[in-house]
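Hey, I'm writing a tutorial for new members on how sequence and structure tokens pair up, and I'd like a real worked example in the thread rather than a made-up one. If someone can provide the structure for the chain below, I'll link this post from the tutorial.
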Amino acid sequence: SESFDILHGLANRPIANFISAAYGLPIKVVAYRGAIGHVSRWDPGSYLKWLNPRLDRIVCVSNAVYADLEKSGVNPKKLITIYKGHNLDWYPDTALSEEERAHRRADLGIPPNVFLIGLVANMRRVKGTDILLTALRELPTHMHALLVGEVRDPAITESLEDPTLKDRVHLTGYRSDATAMLRLCDVNTAPSRGREGLTKTVIEGMAQGIPAVVSEAGGLPEIVDDGINGFVVDVQNDKKDIEDTHALKYALQSLEADPSL
């Protein structure tokens, strides 16, 4: 009755509802897809959403998402990659004096003169926080980690009982000013295992001049040009099917050793 021309769905439930409502109407249905995985020809639920023929176009947040949907059976003619828009004017006050930076770190219990490695996420296993902590064990003791976000992986809590990490890992929990927390860090990381669409926290750190060290998961290599504006490292050892922290440790040590880099 409203004579809309386009319905734009941003999440699973509204997309399924929009598709159902659009049958029989001369209307285009567009969906947004920001994650990898959970779409399959063998899953009947996928035909209510991403594989439904009534869906006219899917906006993919990265080429990795595009490739995943095409592999899962979506007609590539329906797919288009549109990256997240970002504006540097959103960060007018990124420069912190050394004094102010030290003061803000001290408020979080972070000692002076440490090399601070940041990670901002809802820390589920897929985010690879435990991979970073494994690497941290073998890095010099003046290298610390700042973890911003809810801890949802029990392996992280267990790791913090290790005496080599106990005083070197700083947890903030959920922070509405997570972007500002990145300004306190020397490096921003995303050692994810997979299913990354286009990690916003990496973009937010880079927009503030914080170098990134990321894994090869999903769209992360589409944000970081390895060796130019950060490092892209492999955290998967294919032969042993276990995480390999060697490249991650090397990248972090390289940045710590060379401030000009």
